[in-house]
């Protein structure tokens, strides 16, 4: 039987090469007035993960 890929992962992560994954950073959905401009800018950038480190 073939396994289904998780839909939640398909929405959250994008595979950009054979061993790299691009994802959004957390903590940028609500309570943004408390966070500094510098912090919000840093959180809006994408994070690139190495597939080998994910377990």
SSE arrangement:
Layout: H1 7-12, E1 13-15, E2 20-23, H2 37-44, E3 47-50
Low-pLDDT residue intervals, each spanning 5 or more residues: none
Classify the oligomer. single chain
Q: How much is the average pLDDT?
A: 89
Tell me, briefly, the overall form: elongated
What order do the strands of the largest sheet run in, or round the barrel if closed? 1-2-3
Structural class designation: alpha+beta
Strand/helix succession:
HEEHE
Helix content bin: 25-40%
Number of strands: 3
Question: Strand content of the residues, in percent?
Answer: 15-25%
| Euclidean distance between termini CA atoms | 24 Å
Largest beta-sheet details: 3 strands, antiparallel
Radius of gyration equals: 15 Å
Number of discrete helical segments:
2
């Amino acid at each position: 039987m073939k396994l289904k890929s998780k839909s939640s992962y398909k929405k959250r992560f994008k595979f950009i090469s054979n061993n790299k994954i691009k994802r959004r950073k957390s903590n940028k959905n609500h309570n943004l007035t408390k966070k500094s401009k510098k912090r919000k800018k840093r959180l809006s950038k994408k994070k690139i993960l190495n597939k080998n480190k994910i377990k």
